[in-house]
Amino acid sequence: MFITFTVYELLWLFFIYSFLGWILETSTSAMKQKRFVNRGLVNLPFCVLYGSAAIFITIFGQELDGIWLYLGSVILATVFEWVAGHLIERFYHERWWDYSGIRFNLDGYICLPMSALWGALAFVVMKWGNRFLLELFHLIPETPAKILIWAISILFAIDILATLIILSGKSHDVARWEAVDNWLSKISARLAQWIYKHIEIRIKRAYPTAKKVTPVEARPAVFAYGCGLHKIVWLFMIGAFLGDITETIFCRITAGLWMSRSSVVWGPFSIVWGLGIAGATLLLHRYRDKSDSFMFWAGTFLGGAFEYVCSVFTEIVFGKIFWDYSAIPFNLGGRINLLYCFFWGIAAVVWMKHLYPKVSALIEKIPIKTGKFLTWVMMIFMCANMLVSSMAMIRSTERSNGIPAEAKWQEIMDERFDDARMQRIYPNAISTD
């Protein structure tokens, strides 16, 4: 049974854990540098990485306990740190931390000792931290509590927006604004320059060992060169289509019948497969030259974590379970099992070592204008497809709970996607409380 959190409770936990993470990072840095520095990415005393990881494990780790809770926390925290390091490198062209001097590290962004530490911290969060902090939050009267959350949220949104503008390099253009005769524009330019210098100096003090990373420029004459947005969108669509076909054939061979394995109401597309292919490519693209064993274990852990999160997400949001591995040995809550995790590992090797180079080369042969146009068409179509599918599943759950159609969208869903049609599209879906 999942615990339902309010938005205010989640924001409260996010800000508190971000603040506690800021204290931890700042204290550690102060001991090393012998002076105070703000280690947060934003100007407020928050380390967003800590808050985001805590909320994620709070939502998706509710069923985990004991050793599984610790291992799940290790994997989650490691992926968060790994992704954050690459995002900072992509936007700021710097490496703010480097574990290259520590054994069992991957590209200097993550290492086994730090991952074990983050797992322990997440374990404490789930066992004791959340309960204590939520009890503390509920001691505050409701109206002042909501006002406090709103005030912090607004300040945080302004702060993170300004920081993202700085990191993207847009503020480098403020100097040319001073050429404008309008006095208000000059004041805005000076204020922007002051903010930029303040943040830049703070970040340099907080990360004195940061290393500059030269960005790799894409070739403009080639469509979807590298691993950018256009390439990821095409890989998602290809993976979603091929995944649906693969599962349909697999069910025919093992169960002896044809059945729909689509995740959406329009077309043969498996969102889990599409996200898996696109996400794996995005994360493992720069490691594609590493050994097969590295790719296998990376795919095993990432694929297992991804499938588990997808299962929890669909049950929380739609009240449905789309697969159940309870009858297969070595399963975890029926959401994942060891054999299929190994399948994810094998798929990662086959995809990154053999299929991806060929598929990528074919995509890059598409004419630039045609490719960009088709990319936007696919994005709009799939967004609409996923939105309508979500509404249809939510309404299906409402019907099973005896909730009558009152809004116009509910009536449309009842007319277009009744129980018979939903059963044909999602034959294995199991409703939950």
Describe the fold and architecture.
By secondary structure, the protein is mostly helical. It has two domains: 7-212, no CATH class; 229-431, no CATH class. The chain is 67% helix and 4% strand. The chain has a two-stranded antiparallel sheet. Strands 2-3 form a two-stranded antiparallel ribbon. Strand 2 (105-106) and strand 3 (110-111) form a beta hairpin. Helix 1 (7-33) crosses helix 2 (48-60) and helix 2 runs antiparallel to helix 3 (66-92). The longest helix is centred in the C-terminal third of the chain and has 33 residues, at 368-400. It is globular, with a radius of gyration of 24 Å. Residues 170-181 have low confidence and may be disordered.
Estimate nothing, just give the exact number of structural domains: 2
Strand residue percentage? under 5%
Structural class estimated from helices and strands: mainly alpha
Strands of the widest sheet, in order across it, are 1-4
Order of helices and strands: HHHEEEHHHHEHHHEEEHHHHE
- Average pLDDT taken over every residue: 83
Helicity level, as a percent range?
55-70%
- Global shape: globular
Number of helices: 14
Q: Please provide the count of β strands.
A: 8
Rg estimate, integer Å: 24 Å
Low-confidence stretches: 170-181
* Amino- and carboxy-terminal Cα gap: 8 Å
Task: Describe the largest sheet.
Answer: 2 strands, antiparallel
